[in-house]
Amino acid sequence: xxxxxxxxxxxQPMAVEMRMWRIDGQRPKPLTAAALPSENDLHxxxxxxxxxxxxxVLVIGSEVITxxxxxxxxxxxxxxxNLHVLELKRDRTPREVVAQVLDYGSWxxxxxxxxxxxxxxxxxxxxxEASFEEVFGVAPPxxxxxxxxxxxxxxxxxxxxxxxxxxxxxxxxxINAVFFTYIxxxxxxxxxxxxxxxxxxxxxxxxxxxxxxxxxxxGLDWYVSFGGDRxxxxxxxxxxVSAGGGKFYTQTIRALTEGARVWVNIPxxxxxGVGRVVGPAVRFNDALVSVDGLPERLAxxxxxxxxxxxxxxxxxxxxxxxxVEWIRTVPQADAYWEKGLFANQNSACKLRQEFTLYxxxxxxxxxxxxxx
Length: 372
What we know:
Blueprint: E1 2-4, E2 21-24, E3 27-30, E4 32-34, H1 39-48, E5 58-65, E6 71-77, E7 83-88, H2 94-108, H3 113-124, H4 128-136, E8 148-154, H5 159-170, E9 175-185, E10 188-195, E11 221-225, H6 232-238, E12 240-244, H7 247-253, E13 261-266, E14 270-277, E15 282-283, E16 288-291, E17 294-297, E18 319-329, E19 348-350, H8 354-364
Parallel strand pairs: 1-10, 7-8, 8-9, 11-13
Antiparallel strand pairs: 2-3, 4-9, 5-6, 6-7, 9-10, 11-19, 12-18, 13-14, 14-18, 15-18, 16-17
């Protein structure tokens, strides 16, 4: 059970209260709120199951040591790569806990992408990218820590805390408060949640923005998605990648430039090869390939896949072919995949994710000197 508390403009806030009743027949029986054994229990509940907050986040740090000697209770990340600072009120005054969470926020907002990943991997005990995919079902975005959310967590919320948090939110400070009521009913125990304010009530502004934490691109590596009715055996044999059937697909494959290193992924299967682009993208009907040392039109070869689009009326609708000199390839049956590897729907894009690049280089035994 949860409840959002708001109050009219100009009204004085009152302490948020949570009440629950059990319905026995026609008569409701009030359940009595009890004190948690300790707020450390609440810390452990959230660490083990952050879904108690009502939103999906991955906890990437507990008791995180800050540069100024304090310990941040919980640090979490959401599906968009934004960080959440969760600070328990414990026995501190409203001013103390709010000041503390703002202090932590000022530090967390400066964390770089590498800083975030370092904190996460020390806590998670496995690659950050793998943990992220386990929770959200996708690889992490290129940008981490673009926005920040500060949350005061309490077993009870007094009117002073409510007043301070509400005031800060009115100025766009990304802060909220959530409290959990512990209720006992005979031999059963319950935990009820209530947020001070709805997450979409306008408490966002430039104050919530952190400095961009986008992964740096090395200027060389690209991701290529090769799927649909296309056949990987064709691409391996004749040395190409391709995409088409609409502007969304063609504009990215045509962005590949000569000298780019491409890592090819078959959707829902895995990575199957790496190579170097040796020429510009051309329409499928104009593409030439080497057959017995002589140039031949790709369209006249015996191909296993389909590369034409019957309703094509513009260049964007056509299939575009990019010639590639392969460095390493494997059959589709031997495709490589593990949790956390980068993949998206673009036909091609810059590959920035360090974890994916590292794992692929290891698996395919490819290093920068292979490009010389």
